[in-house]
Design brief:
homodimer; 338 residues; alpha/beta; 11-stranded mixed sheet; 43% helix; globular
Chain lengths: 338, 338
């Protein structure tokens, strides 16, 4: 087991937990047996679920937890009741080095707050960010922050650029991902003061490990021009949800106007495109900036989506993401050396 | 002519001007003869174009202008060279009451700056905003600000709510459009301080003419739940462009994966949906907050899109939009009476 990635799983978080979680593990084990799962949750329920999935028993260990954080609980109330919950205990096991990474499909706000409370931030990073994957013409982007930090300074945005770049390197084979700042125009004088300051620092080329390409507008997020897109959590959240809403609007409109869409869906090429857009593939937001990585699976995803999140966890640990972030940051402190 | 809407047109602005402009006027006159067009631009060119469109001659008058504002000119340099340009002269004619509204497909930044320089703002409004139309499941939304004001105070956002509501009433038959604030969650404590303050004022129900429905998230912009969506110009611009980019990504992906899409497009129902999404219908951003209305047509739209902008101009004047905005604002000054 020494080479396996040890994943602490909050087995009680999200819709249809823990059934979905265990089905997701089963799917994941079909293609990758290099993970070991610590299941945090109610022992009797988890035992019963494991007993009907014999194939995965050798890859799992149950750690009993008496409490659960509800999906609609406020982060603060969740953190207060925290210590006996499956989410808290899973994250806590990272501090004790009992695992390499945590994965939860539970309450996002609670997960973010509990992660911050338990795990320290990487030296030099003041605000952890929520990064996500976004489809584009070539492959996928990393976009951050998607909602953890409503207001960000230039220092935060530069940290996000370093962390996002390290994440992209970890997930995809690319040594020099292109990084851009989300803005409302491409000219240097566009945007608010924080964006202009961030642009000036990144453009000065003092960050040797960073391939900064300037500004990007919202209509080019999916064009594949760049790999990592940096923004504050308010703007990132609006952009992400607007894109989701637009995609749903078009999908539902097409379905409604064309009963025969089902015939179309059998065309191989269209199936490929549908698969590219499959939201389960983009499932798994990553909390960046903590000394140990935490991955959030979408609460409503299905077992296939959860299996994708497991794969993200595996890649992050194998690629030594945290070390990559640290070395990106250590290279230069942009604010001191301006 | 006394009942006709008098539209001052910057006939030299945008791609393929003035040909596109005159073709657009011709299309518009097929369904609506209740407009008269003052064409600002180079007389010799406009005369030649009019000579090959005999049908529209009785509805147009040329006013010669020796200069043109280029599409890539900075707003400041445009405003400096301004006074002899077709854009400047068209807007100036509003001040002299020679027309009811201006329409240009030219440089947006220049149009905004020149409009602000020449036309006064409505009493009580400090920042004019750029409003646009956005398709939704039921019909269309009005969304503002789409990029005129990067940073907005609660006073600005409340003005936008009043103005957007008045615009919706003018364009569609609806006495009580639903107004919502764009945010990253629905709970009262979500978002930044300015949003929270704006929410509190709007929620206090002191604005009798305003049907405020709380927050809306990006994924519901197109759901048809509300009619008017309020945001600052930075966020609005990012959301608009992200939606455009997402729609293009899906459209291109579908085309590429399905050569036989052309067959599909002949299906009546799909044609209806395509027509609903046709960007030419949403062409025409409206500058709100000035004492006289200015409409911006997309620079790259075609004659059909330009004709849609003409129709927007017609409706705005016929519905007495400016009076509607003034009476909305006069009802109560929300910041004084808190």
């Amino acid at each position: 087991m020494s080479n396996k990635v040890r994943i602490a799983i909050d087995a009680m978080g999200g819709e249809n937990a823990p059934k979905k979680i265990l089905d997701g593990i089963e799917i994941s084990l079909k293609t990758n047996k290099e993970n070991f799962f610590y299941l945090y949750g109610q022992e009797n329920i988890l035992k019963r679920e494991l007993s009907i999935r014999k194939k995965i028993n050798d890859f799992c260990e149950i750690i009993n937890c008496n409490d659960i954080i509800a999906d609609d609980e406020s982060p603060l109330s969740a953190a207060k009741k925290g210590k006996e919950t499956s989410m808290w205990k899973a994250i806590e096991s990272q501090n004790e080095k009992a695992c390499d990474i945590s994965l939860s499909a539970g309450n996002t706000g609670a997960l973010l707050l509990i992660s911050k409370l338990i795990l320290k931030t990487i030296e030099g990073i003041s605000k952890p960010a929520l990064a996500g994957l976004w489809p584009n013409k070539n492959n996928m982007n990393v976009v951050l922050d998607l909602g953890a930090n409503i207001e960000c300074s230039e220092k935060n945005l530069i940290d996000f650029a370093c962390m996002g770049s390290a994440l992209f390197k970890s997930l995809f084979e690319n040594d020099s991902p292109k990084v851009a700042l989300l803005n409302i125009g491409l000219e240097e004088n566009k945007g608010n003061d924080i964006l202009k300051k961030t642009y000036a620092i990144l453009k000065s080329n003092k960050l040797k490990n960073l391939n900064f390409c300037g500004y990007i507008e919202g209509n080019r997020i999916m064009s594949g021009d760049v790999d990592v897109i940096i923004t504050d959590g308010f703007t990132g959240n609006i952009a992400l949800k607007t894109a989701e809403g637009t995609a749903n609007f078009i999908k539902e409109g097409l379905k409604k106007s064309l009963n025969r869409l089902s015939i179309l869906l059998s065309f191989n090429e269209l199936r490929k495109f549908r698969s590219k857009l499959d939201p389960r593939k983009y499932n798994g937001a990553i909390f960046l900036g903590l000394q140990s990585p935490v991955v959030k699976s979408h609460g409503s995803t299905d077992p296939v989506g959860f299996a994708h999140s497991i794969e993200v966890c595996h890649k992050i640990v194998k690629a030594k993401l945290i070390k990559k972030i640290e070395s990106n940051l250590i290279t230069v402190d942009p604010l001191d050396k301006q």
